[in-house]
UniProtKB/TrEMBL annotation:
GO terms for cellular component: cytoplasm. This is RNA polymerase-binding transcription factor DksA. Zn(2+) binds at residues 116, 119, 137, 140. Keywords: Coiled coil, Cytoplasm, Metal-binding, Zinc, Zinc-finger. Residues 38-108 form the DnaK suppressor protein DksA N-terminal domain. Belongs to the DksA family. Transcription factor that acts by binding directly to the RNA polymerase (RNAP). Required for negative regulation of rRNA expression and positive regulation of several amino acid biosynthesis promoters. It comes from Acidithiobacillus ferrianus. One of its GO terms (molecular function) is zinc ion binding. The keyword Cytoplasm applies. Pfam families: DksA_N, zf-dskA_traR. A zinc finger (dksA C4-type) spans 116-140. InterPro entries: DksA_N (IPR048489), DksA_RNA_pol-bd (IPR012784), DnaK_N (IPR037187), Znf_C4-type_bac (IPR020460), Znf_DskA_TraR (IPR000962), Znf_DskA_TraR_CS (IPR020458). Interacts directly with the RNA polymerase.
Length: 154
C-alpha cells in the first residue's frame, strides 16, 4: 500500500467507515496553523466523508424497501429482522457521525475549526486527520475520558 494515501478502515459490513481516503497534508516551512490550504484540505475530507455516509444511508433505504418480504418461515423472518436491526443501528451511528461532520464544517465556516473547545490550543493536523470531527486537544480529551471513567465507577 502506498504510504501517502490512507485507505478506509476495515469495518463490519454496514458499519460506518472511520476514515476516508485522502493524502495527508504536508505543511510547508513556516506555514501558519489552519492556513487556507489546511482549511481546504479538512473541508474536502469532511465533505467527502459526509457524502460517503449519505450514499450509504440511501443504499440502506433502497435495500430495506427491496427486502420488505413477508417470510412465512419464522426463522427466516427472525434472521431478516436481526439483520435489519443491525443495519438500523449502524445507520443511527452514521446519522450521529453526519451531525458531527456538519458541526465541524460549521466550525470551519466560523473560523473555529482546529482549536480546542475547552482550552483554545491547536488540536494538531495529525490528530484532525485521524479524527476530523475532533473538538478537543489530546490533553483535554484525556482529562474528559478520565472524568467519564471516574463517574462510571461511582
Amino acid at each position: 500500500m502506498d504510504q501517502s494515501t490512507l485507505q478506509p478502515a476495515k469495518t463490519a459490513p454496514g458499519a460506518a467507515q472511520q476514515f476516508t481516503a485522502f493524502t495527508p497534508y504536508e505543511s510547508t516551512s513556516g506555514e501558519e496553523y489552519m492556513s487556507p490550504a489546511q482549511i481546504a484540505h479538512f473541508q474536502k475530507i469532511l465533505e467527502d466523508w459526509r457524502r460517503e455516509l449519505m450514499a450509504e444511508v440511501d443504499r440502506t433505504v433502497q435495500h430495506m424497501q427491496m427486502e420488505n418480504v413477508n417470510y412465512s418461515d419464522p426463522n427466516d423472518r427472525a434472521s431478516l429482522e436481526t439483520d435489519m436491526g443491525l443495519e438500523l443501528r449502524a445507520r443511527d451511528r452514521e446519522r450521529k457521525l453526519i451531525r458531527k461532520i456538519t458541526q465541524a464544517l460549521d466550525r470551519i465556516k466560523a473560523g473555529e475549526y482546529g482549536y480546542c473547545e475547552s482550552c483554545g490550543v491547536e488540536i494538531g493536523l495529525r490528530r484532525l486527520e485521524a479524527r476530523p470531527t475532533a473538538t478537543l486537544c489530546i490533553d483535554c480529551k484525556t482529562l474528559e475520558e478520565k472524568r467519564e471513567k471516574q463517574i462510571a465507577q461511582d
